[in-house]
C-alpha cells in the first residue's frame, strides 16, 4: 500500500544533523588537495553518529568528457551513493575574475531547488570555484536558519593570480592586496575592476557564519584583508591514519632518496627542485623521485623547460608519473625525505601530514603554511624560499648527516586526527545553529 | 400584370416564386453560373442577378432540371429550356459579363468568390473557372513599381496556405502617411483587406532602400497577417495584392505562389514569430496562434492510418492498452520487448506501437518480425501516411486500441522490474477521483527523471514552464518516495481511464511537435474535478534523449510554452498556490540504519 506522509512532529524524535558539503571538483575526476580532503571529511561524517552528510561536487567539460548528464537538470549521481551528487556547470559560464557564474539560473533555479529539497542544517563550503560566490547569498535567502561555514584552502578570494599571492612580474611573495598593487600585477585590469572584485567577494562573504583556516598564516592574511576575527578560526585538516604505514627505510643503502608528491607546477617548485639538483656536487649521493600529475596542464614553456632539465639530470632525478593515494605507503617506503619546495605561501599541504604519518621528515620552503607545519630542526629542514642554492645546501646536509635524519624523524608527531577534527567541526556546527536560532530569519 | 421577359430567358419555378434564367454556363462539375433577370418590383430596372447554382438533377431521365442556389432555394425548369439557355462559360463571359460596368463586375466577382463552398468538395476545376472569370471581369490597377517620382510601393514576400480558407501573408508597403490599405485578391476573386488587422513592424532593409532614393520617412513598413476567406481558395498561383492609399492612389502587384505544404508553412510562421521579437507578443496572440492551431489540425488530420501490422494474437478483452509512439529511434524496441515478454501483466494488456517517422516503415517491419519471432510478445504496429506529431500519433494508437484503460508510454522507457502495469492498475482502482497516474521514472544512473510534474515560473517572468519534482536527486530520496497527488504527471508513462480520457478531449493537438500535451491533459482533468497522482512504488527507467542543447531555446518550444501559459495561466497559478514542489515531507518511518536504503512504507 502507499504511504501518505505527514510532516514530522515538531517536538518529535531527534533528527540527525544534515550537513551539505559543497566542493568544486571530485577526486574521481581530477586529483587535488581540497577535493581529496572534502571527500575524506564527507566519508568520516558518514560514519559519525547524529550527522547525515551530503556531498555536492561540481563537474564540467574541462574535467570530464561528458556534457550535461541529464536534460533539464544539472544534478547527477556520483557512483550510486544517494548522498553524493555532481552538479554540472559550463566552464565558459564561469567568470574567473569575479568568481561568479554568468548563468544566474544556476543559483536561482537549480541550486535553489536542491537546497530546498535537501534542507541542510549546515552548508559547509570547501570551494566555490566554477560554481560562484553568489551561492552564498542564495543559501542565506533560501535557508535563513542554516549555518554557513566556509573552509579557505588558498587565497583565491584575495588574489587573482590563481590565489597564490605571488607577484606576477618578479615572483616575489605578496603580503597584501590592494587595487593599486593588484593592478601592478595585472596592468590590463584596472584598479576599479579590482575594487569591484573585492566588494563583490566581501559582499557575498557577509553571509558566511564561520571561516575555517587550516593554517594560522592563512588566517593572518585573511584578517589583514578584512575578515572579522570573530568570524574566522584556525582548524587544521583532520586526517585518517593510513591503513598501512611505510616501513623505515634501510639507512645504509645509498643514495639518499628524496620524494616529491603533488602537481608538477611552477608554483609547487617544479622548476626549482630540478635547478637545485643540478647544483649538487658530484659527490653528493642524493636522488630525487618525482611523483606528480598535471604536467600536461602546465604551460608549454614550462613543460619544455622541465623536459630539458630532466633530461640533463638523468642520473639524479626520476619522474615516476601520477600516483594514486593508496600507493603512498609503497612509494614512501623507499624514501628518506619528502620535499615541499613551493614558491608560494601554501596553506597546509596534505603531503606534509602524509609524510609524517609515514615517519618521513620534510625539507620545505621557509614561508607560509610550510614553515608553520614543519619546525626547522625538529621534524624537518627549511630552506630559503625560491632559492635553488639554499635548497641544494639543504639537500647536501640531508645526505651527509644520517644522525640528523634520525633526530628529525624522532621529532615527528602524529598528525591531527580526523576524529578530533570531526568532533570539533560538530561543535562549530552546533554553536552556529544555536546562534542562528536566536537571529532567526532576519539575518 | 404579365411579366415581360426577353425571348431568351427560361422561367424556373420554385416555391419562392419564379426566377427567370437568361443564361447559364458551366463553371465546373455540377456547378453552373446563372444570369437571371432582375425581379421587377415596380422600381426601375436593375442589373441582372448572378447566381451560382448546383445542378441537382440534370433531367436526363426526362424530368425537369433541378438546381440549388447558394441560398438553398431550389428551382426547376423543363430540360429543353435549360438546354436553350445554357452554354459555354467563355461565351457567357464574352457575351454577357463583359458588358457589365465596374460596379456590376465587382458584384459578380464577390458572388462568385463565395461559390467555392457550394456543394461538396471544393474542386480545382471550379477554382480554375473562377480564376478565368476573375481575369475577364476584374479592374486592373497600375502595376506597383517604385520610382523616385512615385515612391509608393508594395511587396508581398510570402503567402502560405494555413488551410483552404485561411492564409498567412507577409510583405511591406510604403506610402505617404502609412494609412494605405492593402487588399489581397484570391485567384477565385475573393477580396480581403489585410493591412487593417495586420501586425506591423520595422523593416530596416526597406528603410535603407528608401533612404537610398533620398526619402527619409521611417514607417513600420512590414506587415504580417493571418486572414480568413469566406470560401476556400485552392490555386497556388494568381494571388494579387492591391494598395489603396489615403489620397486615392491605387496599384497592384503579383504575389508569389502560395506555399501549400503544411510543414513548411508551420516552420515559416514559427520562424517569423521568432524573428519579430517576443514569441508571446501581439503577432502570436492575434495571428500566430490561430494560424498554428489550424495548421496543427490540418497536419494531424492529413495523417491517416495506412496499415496495421499484427504480430501474434492480442488479448481478446484487454484491461489495458499500452500505446507507444515511435519516432526515429527504433533501437529501444528490442529492449522493451525483452522486458515485456518476461512480464505476466502483458498477457492481459494489448501493446500498440505507432510509427510516426513514416520513412522507417520497412525497417521497423523487418525488426518487428524478427523480434516477435524471438520473444513471442504480441503487438501491433500502426503505420501512418505522414507524421502526426506526438499527440496525433498517440491518437491513432488510441483509436485502434480496445482496452478500458490507456497506458501511454514513451519508446525510451524501460521497466525496472515486471508487474508494473498491475501495480499501477491496482492503485488506480483504489483511488477515488483519480485522473492520471504516473510512476517514478529514473535516469540511467538511478537519479530521478520524474517524480511528479509541477509548474515553475521564474521570478519576474510571465510564462510557466513544466518542471519535475526532485529531478536529479537519488531514487531513494525520501520525499520522492511518497505517493501523493501532484498537479500533473508525464505522458512518458501515464495510466488513464479511456472514458475519462475521451471525456476531457484527450491529448491536445495544438502544440507544435510535442510538449505540454501531458500537462494540459492533466490540467483538463483537474478542471473536471479529478486528481492526478504520483506512485513511487512503481519504477521505470526513462532514457530521455539529449535532443537539445541546454541554454538554446528553440522557437517551437518557446511558442508551446507561451501557448500553454496563454491557455492555462490562471488555473496553473491557482494550482501552484497550494502545491509545494520541494515538499519536504518526511516519511513517518525513520530511515534504516544503513544510510541510503529506500524508506519502507508504513
Structural category of chain A is: alpha/beta
Please count the helical segments of chain B: 14
Shape, per Cα inertia axes of chain B: globular
Oligomer: heterodimer
Helix content of chain A: 25-40%
Radius of gyration of chain A: 23 Å
Please report which band the strand proportion of chain B falls in: under 5%, 5-15%, 15-25%, 25-35%, 35-45% or over 45%: 25-35%
* N-end to C-end Cα span of chain B: 98 Å
How would you sum up the major sheet of chain A?
8 strands, mixed
Quickly count the helices of chain A.
14
Low-confidence stretches of chain B: 1-7, 584-602
Low-confidence blocks of residues of chain A: 1-12
Main traits of this protein?
heterodimer, A: 443 residues, alpha/beta, 8-stranded mixed sheet, 6-stranded parallel sheet, 14 helices, 16 strands, globular, disordered N terminus, B: 602 residues, alpha+beta, 11-stranded mixed sheet, 6-stranded antiparallel beta barrel, 28 strands, 29% helix
Describe the structure.
The complex is a heterodimer of chains A (443) and B (602). By secondary structure, chain A is of the alpha/beta class. Chain A is built from 14 helices and 16 strands. In chain A, the strands form 3 sheets. Chain A has an 8-stranded mixed sheet with strand order 3-4-2-1-7-8-9-10, sandwiched between helices. Helix content of chain B is 29%, strand content 27%. Chain B contains 14 helices and 28 strands. The N and C termini of chain B lie far apart (98 Å). At the A-B interface, strand 3 and helix 2 of A face loops of B.
Gist?
The complex is a heterodimer of chains A (443) and B (602). Chain A is of the alpha/beta class. Chain A has helices spanning 33-47, 105-118, 134-142, 179-185, 191-205, 216-225, 270-279, 300-312, 328-333, 350-357, 368-373, 388-400, 402-410, 418-439; strands at 17-23, 51-59, 75-77, 84-88, 94-95, 100-101, 122-125, 147-151, 210-213, 232-234, 256-263, 286-293, 317-321, 337-340, 362-365, 380-383.
Amino acid at each position: 500500500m502507499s504511504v501518505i506522509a505527514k510532516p514530522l512532529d515538531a517536538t518529535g524524535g531527534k533528527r540527525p544533523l544534515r550537513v551539505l558539503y559543497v566542493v568544486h571538483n571530485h577526486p574521481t575526476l581530477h586529483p587535488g588537495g581540497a577535493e581529496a580532503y572534502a571527500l575524506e571529511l564527507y566519508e568520516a561524517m558518514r560514519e559519525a553518529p547524529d550527522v547525515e552528510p551530503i556531498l555536492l561536487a561540481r563537474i564540467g567539460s574541462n574535467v570530464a568528457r561528458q556534457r550535461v548528464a541529464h536534460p533539464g537538470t544539472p544534478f547527477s549521481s556520483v557512483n550510486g551513493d544517494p548522498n553524493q551528487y555532481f552538479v554540472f556547470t559550463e566552464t565558459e559560464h564561469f567568470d574567473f575574475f569575479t568568481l561568479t557564474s554568468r548563468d544566474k539560473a544556476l543559483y536561482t533555479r537549480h541550486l535553489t531547488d536542491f537546497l530546498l529539497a535537501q534542507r541542510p542544517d549546515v552548508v559547509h563550503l570547501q570551494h566555490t570555484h566554477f560554481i560562484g560566490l553568489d551561492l552564498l547569498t542564495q543559501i542565506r535567502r533560501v535557508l535563513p536558519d542554516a549555518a554557513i561555514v566556509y573552509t579557505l584552502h588558498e587565497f583565491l578570494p584575495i588574489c587573482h593570480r590563481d590565489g597564490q599571492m605571488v607577484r606576477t612580474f618578479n615572483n616575489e611573495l605578496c603580503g597584501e592586496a590592494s587595487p593599486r598593487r593588484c593592478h601592478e600585477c595585472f596592468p590590463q585590469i584596472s584598479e576599479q575592476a579590482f575594487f569591484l572584485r573585492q566588494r563583490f567577494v566581501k559582499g557575498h562573504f557577509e553571509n558566511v557564519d564561520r571561516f575555517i583556516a587550516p593554517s594560522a598564516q592563512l588566517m593572518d592574511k585573511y584578517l589583514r584583508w578584512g575578515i572579522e576575527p570573530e568570524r574566522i578560526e584556525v582548524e587544521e585538516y583532520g586526517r585518517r591514519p593510513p591503513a598501512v604505514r611505510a616501513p623505515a627505510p634501510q639507512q645504509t643503502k645509498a643514495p639518499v632518496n628524496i620524494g616529491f608528491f603533488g602537481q608538477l607546477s611552477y608554483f609547487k617548485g617544479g622548476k626549482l627542485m630540478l635547478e637545485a639538483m643540478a647544483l649538487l656536487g658530484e659527490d653528493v649521493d642524493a636522488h630525487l623521485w618525482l611523483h606528480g600529475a598535471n604536467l600536461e596542464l602546465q604551460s608549454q614553456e614550462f613543460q619544455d623547460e622541465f623536459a630539458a632539465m630532466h633530461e640533463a639530470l638523468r642520473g639524479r632525478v626520476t619522474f615516476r608519473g601520477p600516483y594514486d593515494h593508496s600507493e603512498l605507503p609503497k612509494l614512501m617506503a623507499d624514501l628518506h625525505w619528502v620535499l615541499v619546495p613551493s614558491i608560494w605561501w601554501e596553506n597546509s599541504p596534505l603531503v606534509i601530514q602524509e609524510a609524517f604519518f609515514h615517519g618521513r621528515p620534510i625539507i620545505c620552503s621557509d614561508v607560509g603554511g610550510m614553515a608553520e607545519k614543519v619546525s626547522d630542526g625538529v621534524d624537518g629542514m627549511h630552506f630559503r624560499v625560491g632559492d635553488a642554492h639554499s635548497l641544494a645546501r639543504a639537500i647536501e646536509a640531508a645526505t651527509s648527516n644520517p644522525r640528523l635524519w634520525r633526530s628529525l624523524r624522532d621529532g615527528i608527531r602524529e598528525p591531527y586526527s580526523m576524529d578530533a577534527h570531526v568532533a570539533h567541526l560538530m561543535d562549530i556546527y552546533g554553536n552556529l545553529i544555536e546562534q542562528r536560532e536566536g537571529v532567526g530569519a532576519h539575518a | 400584370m404579365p411579366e415581360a421577359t426577353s425571348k431568351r430567358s427560361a422561367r424556373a419555378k420554385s416555391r419562392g416564386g419564379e426566377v427567370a434564367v437568361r443564361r447559364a454556363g458551366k463553371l465546373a462539375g455540377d456547378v453552373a453560373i446563372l444570369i437571371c433577370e432582375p425581379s421587377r418590383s415596380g422600381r426601375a430596372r436593375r442589373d441582372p442577378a448572378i447566381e451560382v447554382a448546383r445542378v441537382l438533377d440534370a433531367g436526363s431521365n426526362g424530368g425537369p432540371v433541378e438546381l440549388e442556389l447558394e441560398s438553398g432555394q431550389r428551382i426547376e425548369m423543363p430540360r429543353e429550356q435549360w438546354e436553350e439557355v445554357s452554354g459555354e462559360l467563355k461565351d457567357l463571359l464574352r457575351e454577357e459579363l463583359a458588358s457589365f460596368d465596374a460596379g456590376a463586375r465587382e458584384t459578380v466577382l464577390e458572388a462568385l468568390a463565395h461559390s467555392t463552398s457550394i456543394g461538396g468538395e471544393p474542386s480545382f476545376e471550379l477554382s480554375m473557372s473562377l480564376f478565368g472569370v476573375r481575369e475577364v471581369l476584374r479592374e486592373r490597377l497600375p502595376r506597383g513599381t517604385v520610382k523616385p517620382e512615385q515612391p509608393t510601393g508594395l511587396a508581398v514576400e510570402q503567402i502560405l496556405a494555413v488551410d483552404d480558407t485561411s492564409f498567412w501573408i507577409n510583405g511591406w508597403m510604403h506610402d505617404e502617411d502609412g494609412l494605405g490599405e492593402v487588399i489581397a485578391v484570391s485567384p477565385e476573386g475573393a477580396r480581403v483587406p489585410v493591412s487593417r488587422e495586420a501586425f506591423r513592424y520595422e523593416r530596416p532593409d526597406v528603410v535603407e532602400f528608401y533612404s537610398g532614393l533620398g526619402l527619409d520617412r521611417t514607417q513600420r513598413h512590414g506587415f504580417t497577417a493571418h486572414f480568413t476567406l469566406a470560401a476556400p481558395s485552392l490555386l497556388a498561383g494568381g494571388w494579387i495584392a492591391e494598395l489603396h492609399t489615403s489620397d486615392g492612389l491605387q496599384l497592384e502587384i503579383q504575389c508569389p505562389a502560395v506555399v501549400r505544404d503544411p510543414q513548411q508553412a508551420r516552420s515559416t510562421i514559427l520562424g517569423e514569430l521568432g524573428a519579430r521579437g517576443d514569441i508571446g507578443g501581439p503577432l502570436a496572440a492575434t495571428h500566430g496562434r490561430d494560424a498554428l492551431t489550424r495548421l496543427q489540425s490540418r497536419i494531424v488530420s492529413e495523417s491517416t492510418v495506412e496499415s496495421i501490422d499484427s504480430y501474434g494474437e492480442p488479448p481478446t478483452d484487454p484491461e489495458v492498452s499500452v500505446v507507444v509512439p515511435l519516432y526515429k529511434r527504433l533501437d529501444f524496441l528490442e529492449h522493451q520487448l525483452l522486458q515485456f515478454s518476461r512480464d505476466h501483466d502483458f498477457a492481459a494488456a494489448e501493446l500498440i506501437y505507432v510509427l510516426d517517422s513514416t520513412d522507417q516503415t520497412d525497417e521497423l517491419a523487418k525488426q518487428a518480425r524478427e523480434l516477435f519471432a524471438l520473444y513471442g510478445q504480441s503487438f501491433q504496429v500502426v503505420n501512418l501516411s505522414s507524421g502526426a506529431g506526438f499527440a496525433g500519433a498517440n491518437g491513432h494508437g488510441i483509436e485502434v486500441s480496445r482496452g478500458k484503460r490507456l497506458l501511454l508510454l514513451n519508446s525510451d522507457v524501460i521497466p525496472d522490474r515486471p508487474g508494473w502495469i498491475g501495480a499501477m492498475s491496482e492503485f488506480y482502482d483504489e483511488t477515488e477521483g483519480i485522473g492520471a497516474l504516473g510512476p517514478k521514472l529514473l535516469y540511467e544512473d538511478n537519479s530521478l527523471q520524474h517524480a511528479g510534474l509541477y509548474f515553475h515560473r521564474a521570478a519576474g517572468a510571465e510564462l510557466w514552464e513544466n518542471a519535475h519534482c526532485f529531478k536529479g536527486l537519488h531514487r531513494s530520496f525520501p520525499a520522492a518516495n511518497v505517493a501523493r497527488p501532484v498537479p500533473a504527471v508525464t505522458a512518458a508513462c501515464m495510466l488513464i481511464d479511456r472514458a475519462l480520457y475521451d471525456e476531457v478531449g484527450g491529448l491536445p493537438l495544438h502544440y507544435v511537435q510535442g510538449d505540454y500535451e501531458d500537462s494540459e491533459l492533466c490540467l483538463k482533468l483537474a478542471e473536471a474535478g479529478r486528481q492526478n497522482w504520483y506512485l513511487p512504488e512503481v519504477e521505470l527507467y526513462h532514457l530521455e534523449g539529449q535532443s537539445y542543447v541546454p541554454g538554446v531555446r528553440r522557437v517551437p518550444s518557446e511558442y508551446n510554452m507561451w501557448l500553454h501559459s496563454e491557455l492555462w495561466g490562471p488555473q496553473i497559478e491557482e494550482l501552484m498556490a497550494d502545491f509545494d514542489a520541494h515538499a519536504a515531507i518526511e516519511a513517518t518511518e525513520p530511515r534504516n540504519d544503513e544510510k541510503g536504503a529506500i524508506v519502507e512504507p508504513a
